[in-house]
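ugh ok so i messed up the first submission bc i forgot one of the chains. this is the corrected input, ALL of the components this time, i swear. 859 residues overall. if the numbers dont match what u have on ur side tell me asap before i send this to the collaborators (the ones from the other lab, u know who)
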Amino acid sequence: MTQPKSGDTFGVVGLFESADALMAAISKVREAGLGKVEAYTPYPVHGLDKALGQRRSPLGGMVMIMGVLGALTAFLFQWWISGIDYPIVTGGKAPTSWQAFVPIMFEVTVLFATFTAGLGMLFFLNKLPFFGHPVLHAKAISAITRDRFGLAIEAEGDAFDVAAAVRALESAGARPIEVISVPSFSGPMTARYLERSLLGIAIACAVSGYATYWAVKLFPVLPPTSHMLVQPRLDPQKPSAFFKDGHGMQLPVPGTVARGYLPLGVTSQEEAATLVNPLAVTQKVLEEGRQAYMNHCVVCHGPLANGVPTLTSAYGAKPANLQAQQFREYPDGKIYWAIVMGKNAMPSYAADLSEDDRWAVIHYLRALQRAQNAKPGDLAGVKFEAGSGQGSEGKAP
Amino acid sequence: MKADAVRLPEELQAPALTAGLVTSGNLDDQVLTFAFKKPPRAWYIGFAITSSVMTLGLVLLGYTAAVGIGVWGNTNPVFWAFAIINFVFWVGIGHAGTLISAILFLFRKRWRNAIARFAEAMTIFAVMCAGIFPLIHVGRPWLAYFLFPYPNQRAVWPNFRSPLLWDVFAVSTYFSVSLLFWYLGLLPDIASMRDRATGKVRKAVYSVLCLGWRGANSHWNHFEKAYLLLAGLATGLVLSVHSVVSFDFAVSLVPGWHMTIFPPYFVTGAIFAGFAMVLMVLIVVRETMDMKNLITDYHLDVMSRVILAMSCLMGYAYLMEGFTAWYSMNQFLHSIFTNYFIGAYWWTGWLTVACNVLIPQLFWFKKCRQSYVWMIVIALAVTTGMWFERFVIIVVSLHHDFLPASWHLYKPTLVDYGILLGSFGLFFTMVLLFARVLPVIATTEMKGILPGAQPHAVKSEE
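and heres the new structure output, hopefully the right one now
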């Protein structure tokens, strides 16, 4: 096929008033067999494809293939990145578990498929953009994109009978009829113009590339990016201009007391003897006291507080028998003093027992002492519920 | 065409899609001439307002970039506040456009043709507004390209199990696909404008934009196929995008977020908010651009009905959320759900329910579906309500998290409000510009559904 030269006849186009008229004309014009018959319409008209004998669009298949390709691409990309190249364990899932890849697979599938449908249709199937088509340079085009229906008989080869084509369209009812010739390619379509625009694009690319290079270089050191470097903060072991003394770390305010380490307020065992246990005797306090006793005291003083130890006998220690008369008559405050300050070989338990725990342990110790020296009268006033047997336990007062 | 053969009673016949005499020719004369006329004074006033609001937003964006996002109200534990609320809100607004252009196309709802173009344009502008927010929320927007998986000198890849990364893919795909869909629909219309244009520059611009479209049937053949395929794909996409947005919440463990109902609930809310916005803008368009014959009362009525249906679905979703909280026997969920309505932000919870569920019920009355005042009141209520719904979901759920020691009341700053306002400025500036330079009604699609547009002879010839 030879390249059409400007001035050659491209074809003949006739305009119709309605889609019905166009439809009726097509079969007549096609029967004449004068050339390729094509319709130009302002909107898609149903049934024209069949009437013109045009094949079905292959776009569906293309989109299908590209969609599947998109899904595969997205899957393999994520699988390789998350499973092989840079495995990240998230939520205890195996690095190659595929379920979390589905959303992105879906999006990429849609992306590939839609761009195939849109751009494949425009660029590949319809061969657009094309500004030099003869119909675009005909007078008829402004009627066609408005409300007229064009039917064209287009030349195929050199032997094109213009007069016959005009007659065929005329008898089919087209008004007006226009003979279209191949336009002389001037302006935007010349090779010189294309060369120039390519050169322009190349220069633009070079300039913007160079600018981007420097922008990326300079960006981290120019404000506002450089503001990230200004971070007023205290570094350990470093001076600071924030405080007058130039130290970053400051001493606590005089008289600061750590949580749970309130000063005792008494200075000797004798003074301590006057302290009164602030806690009421309740089941809850006794339970707390029991736990504290079992955690800290029982290893030396024994479960019955009689100085028969569970553990420390192995070391030859001689812990006090707290069931002894001396200790049964000891004021609560003196026991408290012993817990806080330690006694003989016993170290201070102030760090291990909070203030409440210390007093709770003392209540529990009193319960142990009373249980080991029980008198029949102790049960007076305790009501036994029939069959329950729960009325009294060893540790209850 | 079968339906034409049987005479249906009057009330069962499909209502006319246009009013008065509309032909292909006068449709073009009506719709395509705006680009060639000087805009009226009202347009300039509107443009001045919206563009100055947009400028305010831009200045505050610059301020945020220069000083850092400490100028916002975000602080422990509410790190997701206005930026994410606005993002979800704007993405949601966009969904109505895709629903109208894609889903209603697949269902062959021919009334969509008149409003599809504007709705699609609003989708694109809304997604543009939405895109700003995650970008500025990353703190250093100039490094936002780290989000994309590209080989880099740090030898680090993004985490593909993170819903936040899914979001990057979903939203960027959504934007490109919407743009493509919109542009394809515009092509033949731009070709019409090219052939109307007289000025040399205009003609050149429209010529290039329409890629030399000439209306050949072999082209229409592929075009129609592509449009159908795009509609099908965009349908899946539109359902997936807000689902993925909801995964940002649902996949986390924050009570009030960790719910299986979130994806459909978010999609419904998105369509709901979007339709309200489309309704509002179309009322203004049909009045100011004199398009009552193309955007008819029937269109407004149908859109009001869609809003009503979506409102009922929203009510169901809220009830379901409450039921889930109660049925889960999870004390954290109980506490969060009661917090929505009796906590420090109790009024936002009630505002959400009132605006989204109660007020739109007025659309049951035909009078409300026909009166501009009611339609605009309800659409404004829905827009407000949907914004506050995201506030409730995000801020109210976050401000009382698992650790009572870090509970904190969130207070937005003026910068927060300014950027939100600025996004509205951007949106309406784009809408105003669009209305002047491109056809606001899909004339090609309208021509195809006008009476007598399609040949009746097709059947008899077969």
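quick check: Chain A has a mean pLDDT of 85. that seems consistent at least. The first strand of chain A starts at residue 9 and ends at 16.
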